[in-house]
Write a structure and sequence with these properties.
Elements: H1 2-18, E1 30-32, E2 41-49, E3 53-54, E4 57-58, H2 61-79, E5 83-86, E6 94-101
Parallel strand pairs: 1-5
Antiparallel strand pairs: 2-6, 3-4, 5-6
């Protein structure tokens, strides 16, 4: 029974990464540091969240951060931005990103 539960939880955690939509144009969105966006036009911010734990199993930090960044890039496409800056995280699996338009 424990093996079945462990396999099910592992499969669900792995599937969570595949559920993030990759919007056209999102691969062109840059990730910058705060000092790199001086002179850029602010397009707002986006609060994103993903599944960070499945039951008692935590997903890998790198996978969670990659999913959060992809959601931020998707949001930047929708907002007309071309750059995002990582903002604060209130809890594991949640983060705010600032969106900017830096390129003509």
């Amino acid at each position: 029974m424990k093996k079945i539960l462990l396999v099910t939880v592992s499969l669900l955690a792995g599937c969570a990464s595949n559920l993030i939509d990759v919007r056209p144009g999102s691969s062109d969105i840059l990730l910058a540091k705060p000092g790199q966006v001086e002179g850029c036009e602010s397009k707002g911010k986006i609060d994103v969240s993903v599944l960070a734990r499945v039951g008692f199993i935590s997903r890998s930090y790198d996978e969670v951060e990659a999913n959060l960044l992809q959601l931020a890039r998707n949001g930047a496409v929708d907002a007309g931005g071309d750059t995002v800056v990582k903002g604060p995280s209130t809890e594991y699996g949640r983060r705010t990103y600032l969106i900017y338009k830096c390129r003509p």
